[in-house]
Amino acid sequence: MTDHAPLKLERFLPYRLSILSNTVSQAIAREYQQEFGLSMTEWRVMAVLARFEPLSAREVAEHTAMDKVAVSRALSRLVEAGRVDRERHGNDRRRSVLRLSEEGWRVHDAVAPRARNHEREMLAQLSREEIDTLARILDKLAPV
Amino acid sequence: MTDHAPLKLERFLPYRLSILSNTVSQAIAREYQQEFGLSMTEWRVMAVLARFEPLSAREVAEHTAMDKVAVSRALSRLVEAGRVDRERHGNDRRRSVLRLSEEGWRVHDAVAPRARNHEREMLAQLSREEIDTLARILDKLAPV
DNA sequence: CCGTTATAGTTTCATCTGTAACCATTTGCA
DNA sequence: TGCAAATGGTTACAGATGAAACTATAACGG
């Protein structure tokens, strides 16, 4: 047997990050799905529209770090469900002009507090100092 | 306009974690894929076998936090590729007995240092104190 | 023993995701 | 102008993923 130096997966940072992120995202996603029939991607699109509307699909993609195909699909479901209104841009007929509908706002206002709550529960396990450091780490490793 | 209190997605922790994790994982996955035709899941299975072999498929699933379906699929590709040897357990013929093949060890020994390297590059952006705190945070939020 | 229940692993199906190709429209510039 | 290149967005295809059903074997309780 030669010296194979196997990797300790459970100490390997990319692995641990992936586990944590999946655990958290799936817990949240499951809830949105069950109560509002809303996928994670759909929710991200709605959250961005709530903040910056009106936006084009491309702008939604920029804000959400999703690619344009994913955005297009999420939007077609949201428009179908009557949660987003889509118009054509007056000067550039390629662009869409996207806004939350009234129903979209209702869903947003129901989901947003729950989202915050999930984050709060997560952070409640950490000390003040750990929270600050985590924010700093994320700024360094994944600047938005 | 009523008070809609939209969510700041780019400050929302689950979102940021997901971005970071996906960025890191995809960068690594792409490399393994190109050079060894190895998916992330396959690599995880190999890493665990390297450390604990022989294992049954269920044990691999426990160590990797993957579900048994994902493990089964990864294993069938690895066995097919001659990277893992699969036998039946003597006393319990439901179980498989899994080990890296010689070829599997060769791949492992080529990939493991690269994996460590990725981690090192990532950590190089952080201070000693941030690294320690991050480890502590992960222990709290995603105990393995 | 024998029938029920549990376990190991695979297969199936429906959904999701990423990449590339595609269509329509607009822009840039010869 | 008018034609090539760029842009916004959708569609098509291929591979990945998760839940549930299924097969085979083993364990358990009367």
Structure description:
- With 144 residues, chain A is mainly α.
- Chain A has a single domain, classed as Winged helix-like DNA-binding domain superfamily/Winged helix DNA-binding domain (Arc Repressor Mutant, subunit A, Orthogonal Bundle), CATH 1.10.10.10.
- Chain A is 65% helix and 7% strand.
- The first copy, chain A, contains 6 helices and 2 strands.
- Chain A has helices spanning 13-36, 40-52, 57-64, 68-80, 102-123, 128-141; strands at residues 84-88, 96-100.
- Chain A has a two-stranded antiparallel ribbon.
- In chain A, helix 3 (57-64) crosses helix 4 (68-80).
- The radius of gyration of chain A is 19 Å and the shape is elongated.
- Chain A starts with 12 loop residues before the first helix and ends with a helix.
- The model of chain A has no long low-confidence stretch (mean pLDDT 92).
- At the A-B interface, helix 1, helix 2, helix 5 and helix 6 of A face helix 1, helix 2, helix 5 and helix 6 of B.
- Chain A binds a DNA duplex (30 and 30 nucleotides) through helix 4.
The main pleated sheet of chain A reads as: 2 strands, antiparallel
Most extensive protein-chain contact, per-chain counts? A-B, 53 and 53 residues
* SSE order of chain A, one letter for each helix or strand: HHHHEEHH
- Computed structural class of chain A: mainly alpha
**Overall radius of gyration of chain A:** 19 Å
* Share of helix of chain A, binned: 55-70%
Number of DSSP E strands of chain A: 2
- The quaternary organization reads as homodimer
Count of separate DSSP helical elements of chain A: 6
